[in-house]
Amino acid sequence: MAGAVSLWRREAMFLTAMLASETGIVGINTLFKAATSKGLNSYAFLGYSYLLASLLLLPSPFFSNRSRSLPPLSFSILCKIGLLGLVG
Fold first, then answer.
1. What domain of life is recorded for the organism (predicted)?
2. Could you tell me the residue range of the domain that residue 35 belongs to?
3. Measured between alpha carbons, how far is 67 from 27 in angstroms, rounded to an integer?
């Protein structure tokens, strides 16, 4: 029973994160439409949104419980990074 509750909480956390992400995207799109219709340059809006995102995400490494060491950078990982860069 405890495993089912833990799985349910994990799934609920992922659902909440997805809904928050989608709500944020809709909010940014709405703000972009309103700002550009009033004359704000799209590049300025992009800079402001990146600045805000950086300020919001900057403290996150200090609160995470991940290890400080990085995994070794192998040829396989470099190929995957290159493929993602090519596709993206």
1. Eukaryota
2. 1-57
3. 34
What total of structural domains would you count in the chain? 1
Packed helices 2-37 and 42-57: angle between N→C axes, nearest 10 degrees: 150
Do the domain assignments include residue 14?
yes
> Residue 76 carries which side chain, given as an amino acid letter?
S
The pLDDT tens digits for 31-53 are 999 999 999 999 999 999 899 98
Q: Do 36 and 42 meet the contact criterion of CB atoms below 8 Å apart?
A: yes
Would you say residue 44 lies in a domain?
yes
| Upper half-sphere CA count for residue 66 (Cβ side, 13 Å) | 8
Can you give the pTM of this predicted structure? 0.56
Q: Distance (Å, rounded) from C-alpha 20 to C-alpha 75?
A: 36
